[in-house]
Amino acid sequence: LRPASRPAAAAVVAQLNLDLAAPGPALDVGALLDFKRNGHVCTRALFAAPEIDAMRAPLAAISAGEAVAAESHAAAMNDLHGGLRAPFLQTFNPHRRHQAARAVATCPRLAAVARQLLGAGQAR
User: Fold this and answer.
1) In 3D, which of 61, 51, 49, 67 has the Cα closest to residue 9?
2) Phi-psi sector, 45: left (phi>0), alpha (psi -120 to 50), beta
3) Which of 12, 18, 79, 123 has the smallest C-beta neighbourhood within 10 Å, fewest atoms?
């Protein structure tokens, strides 16, 4: 897939109409321990329902396009490896090709959660 043009990508981000810099909830000690023990944690209410609603269509469109690219990649790999089918499809870094995905993936709110989970002073 080709990256979207900058004006088109900017329009998609503008359509999101979100303040993704707004602070998210602080993780409690239980969530931090779950992450340390299990390597993952489920955060609730990181985004409000209206924010999810605003992100749904643009990110679903990106996901659909990425799925087509993943199928093409899987077919090429299957041919390369004698027809062995990979047990899953891979999507490679959509935030590098799609401004709307980048806006969400790199928003300060997610970076703040990453800092909390990693005990780091910075996350980008």
Assistant:
1) 61
2) left
3) 79
Residue 120 confidence (pLDDT): 85
Tens of pLDDT, residues 78-103: 777 777 776 667 777 888 888 888 88
Structure tokens at 66: 């990425």
* Cα gap 40→117, rounded to integer Å: 9
Structure-token match 């999101």, residue found: 16
CA distance 98 to 41: 26
Check: CB of residue 60 under 8 Å from CB of residue 38.
no
- pLDDT bin (cut points 50, 70, 90) of residue 73 is confident
Task: Give the sign of the dihedral formed by CA 54, CA 57, CA 109, CA 113.
Answer: positive
pTM comes to: 0.66
Contact at 8 Å (CB) between 31 and 43?
yes
SS3 for 119? coil
